[in-house]
Amino acid sequence: MVLGEESGLPDYTPPVNGYPLIVTTSYQFATSPENPDAQLEIVVRALSADLWQLGGGTLEPRVGEVSGLGKSFSELVHFFRSYLGSGNDPTKMEANYTAEMARLGSEADTTYMAFLDVFRSYGKAGIVQVIRQMLLEGDDLRQMPYDALPAWIRATTGSGQ
After folding, report:
1. Element housing 23 (H / E)
2. How far apart are CA 96 and CA 108, in angstroms?
């Protein structure tokens, strides 16, 4: 892991010689020492981005307008963090997510819920299938509107809409 500075290596720096290079700014950890979930999300996002690139995927910077691919990748990272924090129990994942959204005064994100539905129905193999399709169809996902993402995610496993 590299703790960079704002003028250092950017987010989503490609892996080096096939090895993940996790880049994050050092202040991100210092700003939330009392929030281990936020710290876990930082590490999971950085690691996921490198593994994504090792798999042949590309990501755009997280500034400006976020594409359908960027949105689905962000919710996949949120899913991974939730997976780790719940001991891979989908019921606990949903309860924790619902509580988090209520605390924030937000509604559940339908893209995240699609990942959770796939996991609940197909387990890890279902999530792997979605990731494979995301890698294969990344260019199409970039153009996809947000409201179409949940149906697309569910359809990758044949679970319909």
Report:
1. strand 23-25
2. 11
